[in-house]
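Dear U.,

Please find below the material for section 3 of the report. The protein was modelled together with 2-acetamido-2-deoxy-beta-D-glucopyranose; I have listed the sequence and SMILES used, followed by the predicted complex structure.
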Amino acid sequence: MRRINRRLEVIALLLVGSLGLLILLFTDNSDDLLEVPKSETAQSMPKLHTNVNQATTRLVTKCKINTSVGEIPEFTSFNKPMKEFLRYRHCRNFPVLLDAPEKCGKRPQDSSNVFLLLMIKSSPLNYGRREVIRKTWGKERLQNGVWIRRIFVSGIPESSVDAHRYDSLLKIENEQHNDILQFDFIDTFYNLTLKQTLFLEWLETRCPHAHFLFNGDDDVFANTENMVLFLKGLKDNDGSEHLFMGFLIIGNGPIRDAYSKYFVPTQIYESHLFPPYCSGGGILLSMFTTKAIYKVLHGTELFPIDDVFLGMCLEKVGLQPMSHTGILTLGFQMLSNTFETYDPCFYRELLLVHPFLPHETIVMWEKIHNPQIKCGTLLAPKRPV
Ligand SMILES: *[C@@H]1O[C@H](CO)[C@@H](O)[C@H](O)[C@H]1NC(C)=O
Ligand SMILES: *[C@@H]1O[C@H](CO)[C@@H](O)[C@H](O)[C@H]1NC(C)=O
């Protein structure tokens, strides 16, 4: 019964949605085709009208579809997201819907006060993850005398029903925490590269003098204290030299299986080998390296997998990604069978673990700060290969 109700609810929502779209199509640019008295529509359906207004702004900003993609050999055999990616691959300018313009200071020049900026890619739907990060490793604070700042980068939800609902949520979150950067594009896996490039542009204008950047996902446990200690311990601890560090992946290549989330057809990428790159779960970059990447950003065609894309940019500018054994983003689940993964001493030594659940994050953040827990004699855990 409840299921039927839900289904009815969904159908009703879909109907309302399509009605809205129809009204929009006819009122927006086809007045002479169909005479809909605008004021009347607005009066009889005030609720719909607000939705229509929002949708209008979105349609106006929409970039034109590339109709020639059908000419790519075997295009029809690609999966739906890949087709969608190719149709809109050339679209790279999307308006900012929500911003935190003074995240790094009143003026861009003031941004040198930020030592470590945490850029966390987050789908609008991941409210719980954001809340946990705000309370734990992503807390904005003065750490060992330097500032940590945080920003979540989002697009809009894929379903238009969700889009309206989450609009208000992100707005409220940003009013409360001043930490949301939202762009007007659909937040999907193959659009993560777009998210990355739009963020780098934002960084260049809003926060050009921060020293270091943590570039990562919202499902990780990041020991940001250790990150600050590590970065402060570098010879060039002001971000003026090359740093691009994470879980290094060398010798990996594209997956040709159209059912895979990571599917990349030969028509898009011919070689069977990617350039060296770091797993996108969490990467540490210096501002020097960020700026180097920024220089080649516009001339580099978007690639469907965001961390590989960063590897491609690095290769273009002749810089190498580096490895840090304290950043574990792959093979960690295997490790958890043989190790006491809840041992806080383990996490005290690390910089990043992926994946990590929100409730685990709360517990672990508390534990690694517990002065009663004595560490030091722990056998060094084996690192996964
Ligand atoms: C459209 O797609 C075709 C086929 O991939 C490509 O050659 C062309 O450059 C694309 N056009 C734009 C504007 O990106
Ligand atoms: C990326 O976002 C654009 C703009 O919203 C959208 O048209 C396109 O379909 C999205 N691409 C994918 C692969 O979801």
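For the text of the report, you could mention the following: The chain is about 40% helix and 15% strand.

Regards,
Y.
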